[in-house]
Each structure stands twice: as structure tokens, then as C-alpha cells.
Amino acid sequence: MLNHLRMSTGSNERRCCRFLPVACIAWVAMAAALSASAGRACAAERPNVLFIAVDDLRPEMNCYGVPCMVTPNFDRLARQGVRFERAYCNIAVCGASRASIMKGIRPTPARFTSYKTWAMKDAPDVPSLPLVFKQHGYYTMSNGKVYHHRTDDPEAWSEPPWRPATSSIWWALPENRKLATGFRQRGPAYEGADRPDEIYPDHQICDRTLSDLRRLAKRHQPFFLACGFYRPHLPFVVPKAYWDLYPEDQVKLPDNMFFPRDLPRVFDYTWGEMRAYHGIPKKGPVSRETARQLIRGYHACVSFIDRQIGRLLDELDRLGLADNTIIVLWGDHGWQLGEHGFWCKHTNFEVATRVPLVIVAPGVEGGRVCHRLVEYIDIYPTLCDLAHLSSPGHLQGKSLRPLLADVEAEHKSAVFTRFGGGDAVRTFEYRYMEMRANRGRGPLQGAGMFDLRRDPQENHNVAEQPTYRKTREQMETMLHKMLGELTQVR
Ligand SMILES: [Ca+2]
Description:
The structure is a single chain. The protein folds into two domains: 45 residues, no CATH class; 368 residues, Alkaline Phosphatase, subunit A, CATH 3.40.720. The protein is α/β, with parallel strands linked by helices and 490 residues long. Helix 1 crosses helix 4, helix 5 crosses helix 13 and helix 10 runs parallel beside helix 13. The strands form five sheets. Strands 1, 2, 3, 6, 9, 12, 13 and 14 form an eight-stranded mixed beta sheet that branches. A four-stranded antiparallel beta sheet has the order 15-16-17-18. Strands 4-8 form a two-stranded parallel sheet. The site of calcium ion (CA) has 6 residues, from loops.
């Protein structure tokens, strides 16, 4: 029916919605009083948004070329939209990455720096993505982990953001809960209890989102519904049934569990986040057996979230919302699953910064893969573009809409990431990274470069090799130009 209505929408009405947003907002507000057919016609011009965040999800799905993964619903989503093969976060830590995505601006040494970033404190004058949708007449909602802090950016939401009461109870088994005595001594890093899905917070977040979808489907108002899942963030706690999908004897360890050759030690990383969990050594590597369990646990969590994604997609179909809803699936950063001997995120390496990104949108042909370099700051302008809202002037990303129409279209030649004292630029062929004192503002402490054509795993630093001198200079120039521009606009 929505397809039919969209086809029957006249071009004049379409122009009205696109170029006269204020008039359209007023019109939407009065939608209940208008004829049902006119209301649906405008709604078709104003697509809903289902904004799905999955905490710490690297592109570890079947559709991203990881054959062992059982991810039928992530794969189904990819078939419905465009999957971005080379998408990158702008900072590999939860709160900062989320704030950067939601505000549409890059992290710097002064803003969006840690897991506990508040978007509204670091960029108080910058309208967030959900706020802009709300200002254009959308009904905006947030369930689960969207911002790091539930109460961040409160004016962006039509209702107070919701999280389940179980969010803070990570382990299902009482004996594991007892091991958690504080922030620095947590329970086990993983658990596969023979318990039902329903007791876990992500299932409850999905339940809540399903009931919100049913409620929103009855409103004569487009919606922006954000749904953030907690796993596969540590601890890897999901029902045993999902662990059983990954038999222990089939788990493969990465073949580069070593620090990159010839790379300055200033790029070393001790993954303190995971060392707070029971059973993880306070220093040095984990045992191979523990490494196998961690990888299994991460995979089990991804499949558990896949199950929730399937429930969301089923309900969108059942409610007849699928044809008029944009879906964005994003992670927040990558994750090191033993590569370089690292775990967790907090670096500028490929594994910590490469992220999943799938966009499904009305009129966008599904099942396509885009190989262009894209960044998470591109999400904000893309959604404004797809919903025909004028983008705020502060945005530092670039709309992906041309790529959704033609996955071969030109986009950008490089992406930029930072964390702590580190800044990095990645082109199609190289990654160049610097580490500086004073959280990136001080003197250079070390530089590294990887030739991704020959060394996609980033195992061998070539920054000091004479044959790469010219390339290194070009990469340095590109990085410093971006950092210089950021300093000016801030
Ligand atoms: Ca995260």
C-alpha cells in the first residue's frame, strides 16, 4: 500500500515536503485532522528511521566475509540495502564515537575523547541528529545504549530514553555475579549459561522496540527510533544456545597475534579494559585457551544480536513499515580479537577502526556492496539527505546518498581516526599513524605506516623504508592538513 501511495504522490507535493519543511511540519502536526489518504502520501515522502547501534560490533558477520559466522539476519539486512565494505569510525571508543556520530563532527584532543563522553557537554551548541529530526516533525525515541549516558542530549527525544533494569546485571549465574566486586574487578569476561533469551537486556531492548514500533505505526507522524544493543561489548554473556553455534574445536585464532614488526613501541596497547574481568591476567597475553573462549564468546554475542535484528525486521514487515523506513546498522568502532596481540579497541589500527555499516532506504536497490572509503560522520548528512531535511551547516561528514544510488560514485580519498595521542589517516592503499604527547597536541613520539596492498593485516611498519619516503610525506601532509583544518573550525 505504501508503494502505491508513494507512486501516486504528485511531484508538487514532493517539492512541498522537501523545500518547505516548516510548512510540512505544521502539516504533519495536523495530520490527524486531514484526510487519511493525504496523510499517508506525505508520510511516504518522510521516511521513518530505524537507527540500530550494536556496541563494539566489528564487521564480523557472514555478509562481511567471515564464513564461520551464523548471522542470517545481518545478512538479510545486507541483502535489503547497501553494505559498506570500507566504513570507519572516527574514534575507537564507545561514548566518543557515539557523540561524534550523533553530532556529525570529528573528535579532537579537546572533545569526544573517552568512553564516558557526554555529547551535550562536549558540543553543547551543535544540534544532534535526532534533535534535527525532532525539529522537523519526527517523533524521536531511544531504547538501550544509544548515547553512552542514557540522559545525554535529553531535548533530542520525544520521550525519555529507555533502558531495561537488567542493563547493569551482566551475568546470569549468581556465582559469576558474586565475582564482580567493583569497576576494577568485574566478573568473568564470558559466560554461556543455559538460560532463556528473555532474561538478557538485549532481548528486552528488542521487545521494547517492537512494542514501540507497533505504537508508532499507528501515529500519523514519521519516527526516528534508535535502538542500541549492549553486546558484543564485554562481558560476552549470552545464552549457551548461541555458544553452541561455535564448537570449541573449530575456533581459529588470528595468525598475527604479535606486535607489528618495526613499529615504535609507543603504539603498544595493553587493553586494560579487559584486564578488569575475572580470569584475565593483569599483564601479559591471555592463554591460547582463553583466547579461543573470548573469540567464541564474541561470536556467540554477535549471533545473539543477529537474532534481535531478525525480530526487528520481521516486525517492520508485519506492520507494513518496511517500505517506508530507512534502516541504518552501525557498530560504534571495531574490536581487536587477538590481532597484534591486542584485545578491545582504543587504537587506530584497521581492526579497531573498521566498522559495519548497512543502509536500507526506500528506493535504494538492495544487495549491493560499496567499496568506497566512508566514515561514521557521514551518517548524519546521509540521513538528512534521505529524509529531505536540510543539513545543518556544522556537519563535517559527506552524504552517502550518491553512493546508495551508484556504489561506484566518487566519495572521499581518505578517512581519519584518532584516539588519545594517536591520529591516523587511511587511504585505499595505506594507513599512516602518528603518536604525539599531550593527547595528540605535543611533539611526535612515533610514526607508523602500512602498505595495505601488500600487508592488509598491518603486520609490518614501512614508515622508515626509503622506498616509501615519498608516500609517507604525502600521507603526513594529508593528515596534518586535516588536523590543521580541525583546529581552525573548532
Ligand atoms: Ca563501544
